[in-house]
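User: Good morning. I'm curious how zinc ion would be positioned relative to this chain. Could you predict the structure with it bound?
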Amino acid sequence: MPREAAVVHSPDYFCDIGAHVFPTAKFGLLRERLVADGEVAEGAVLEPRPASREDLLRVHSHEYIEDLEQLRWTRRTRFSELPLTEEIVRAYVLAAGGTLLAARESLTRGFGVNLGGGFHHAGPDRGEGFCYINDLAVAIRALQHEGLVRRAAVVDCDVHQGNGTAAIFHDDATVFTLSLHQERNYPVPKVPGDLDVGLEDGITDEAYLARLAAALERAWAHAPDLVLYQAGADPYREDQLGGLGLSLEGLAARDRLVLEGCARRGIPAAVTLGGGYARRLEDTLEAHLATCRIALRLARAGAAPAGAGA
Ligand SMILES: [Zn+2]
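Assistant: Good morning! Here's the predicted structure, ligand included:
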């Protein structure tokens, strides 16, 4: 029985962050492209609800969430490298709800894709690096709380290390955090996760994929019930904030390695977009589109998660 991967998006993911290297227009453009290409029907795109306060507080401190609610510029909010407005906070809380919805749907469909999220620099008590709410952690903790997931893994292939996610799950043995990133790049210092693969500048497709394949073995050994995939497009060689040497084909091969690995093992996977700052926005879109297509096709190929109902 063919299944459709869940595709999650809201027009309210878009928020005005002023003149900025982060292209928040990409969320809506990706939805348009996926619909235009016939990858997903417009009516099949799922609209998320904002993550609840309870969901947020399983990951972030009271003080920090209050700072966001009251738009307070404090030591917890001031490293976001973003403005702090009601609209922006709403967009991040909504993106967290979106990743939760994609992850929840992946449990029965095999795959879920949030056309947003991947905000891996947000830590327990602070935002940083264009990230206010750690949607990856919000999704995992909510599904664990509901008893739908026991063990999870975060596979983070953004060019920047997933320091916020690592900090959140530092003392949590149920969640395995893997980050494959450029060593000599933001953040400095890095927060150690369960497995950090710090790559040398300029690494190209073949060497990158070999390092990823080896690292994934450790993630599979954790026996996760769910994988959250941060599919950042910024390891691309034309990225303005990255210094790795991957081609667009290399990025797609990376996505296949992660997502086919999940499918083969019957592990549900939720995809989030993460970074992507290519000189040409079109390249960032192309990289994200390839990730989405791979998840959608694997779902259709009937890669049902183990234990899911028919
Ligand atoms: Zn990044």
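Residues 158-160, 232, 234, 274-275 surround zinc ion (CB under 6 Å). The two ends are 8 Å apart (CA to CA).
Let me know if you'd like a different ligand tried.
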